[in-house]
Amino acid sequence: MATRRRILKILAGGALASVAGFAAGASPTLARWQGVVLGAEADIRLDHPDAARLLERAVQEIYRLERLFSLYRPDSELVRLNRDGRLGAPSFEMLELLSLSGAVHFRTQGAFDPTVQSLWATYARAASAGQRPDAAMLKAALARTGWQYVRVATAEISFARPGVMLTLNGIAQGYIADKVSALLRGEGVENVLINTGEIMAMGQTPAGEGWPVRLQGQARALSNFAVATSAPRGSLIGADSSLGHILDPRTGLPGGVWREVSVISKSAAIADGLSTGFCLMDESRIAAAKGADEVLLRA
After folding, report:
1. Is pLDDT above 80 for 275?
2. How far is CA 223 from CA 62, 149, 182, 210, in A?
3. Is the entire prediction scored with pTM above 0.85?
4. I need a surface site. Which of 92, 224, 236, 274 has the fewest CB within 10 A?
5. Residue 77 CB neighbours (<10 A)
């Protein structure tokens, strides 16, 4: 399954100079790590005297969580669940993330649904042959799609129907940002920018300002907030330029009411899941579901 292209980007050029001037040495305690998290470019910017040790801990936590949620590692909990239809003794993090997924599914009236992986697999198989799924293929995939088929208990996670599969790519990057943030906060860190494909901005830059990000072409400064952005055509299915990557779990078709949706929330996981689901919802339904979170829509 292709991963979402992340639209949200840290400001470049002159705006980034105010973040801290890595090359100029404006802050001797500012350090940076860059890598990849679940297929998304990742970046942590940490202002702390013990930054090297803390960054190592943060990266270890990222890789630990990847081993749970990856769709591609054969030993991940998610791969084993999809392969076997059950997962005994699931980790606390898997249980927590599925609980959050269920909450976002309910909040978005079913628009966010991690069981779209069966649909994704159907599109991927068709795309590999240079085709689109036909009506019969989509009907079969839709019969394996639906959050109601997921059974979550502390002893076991299972599927109520054969062929059901999950993808957590629409929420796991945000969840990992939240977990890294909690780890660093427990170490006494106050100022850090965590980008695991979605962004969590804690505290301030060394210049005493909020962390600068660009949302839908506008500069924003974030402090103690997370943000996620989704775009239905941010990446495409196969070589077909008409097929956006966000699949509607209710119809089985690529969908999208909005060109781009950004959500600012206290939780990166919630922002991540909502930004995906809101792409498939009209403005009135979004207004009813957004609660205290801020939503930016681009038609």
Report:
1. yes
2. 22, 38, 15, 5
3. yes
4. 92
5. 20
Would you place residue 5 in the very low, low, confident or very high pLDDT band (cuts 50, 70, 90)? very low
Rounded distance between C-alpha atoms, residue 292 and residue 48, angstroms:
31
127 — pLDDT class (breaks 50, 70, 90): confident
Cα gap 174→158, rounded to integer Å = 24
Instruction: Assign 14 a pLDDT band (cuts: 50, 70, 90).
Output: very low
Q: In what order do the strands lie in the sheet containing 218-222?
A: 9-10, 211-215, 218-222
Contact yes or no for 141/119 (Cβ under 8 A): yes
DSSP state of 254: B
Classify domain 9-298 by CATH number.
Answer: 3.10.520.10
Q: Residue 242: its pLDDT value, please?
A: 62
C-alpha triplet 190, 32, 195: angle, nearest 5°: 70
Q: Where are the domains of the chain?
A: 9-298
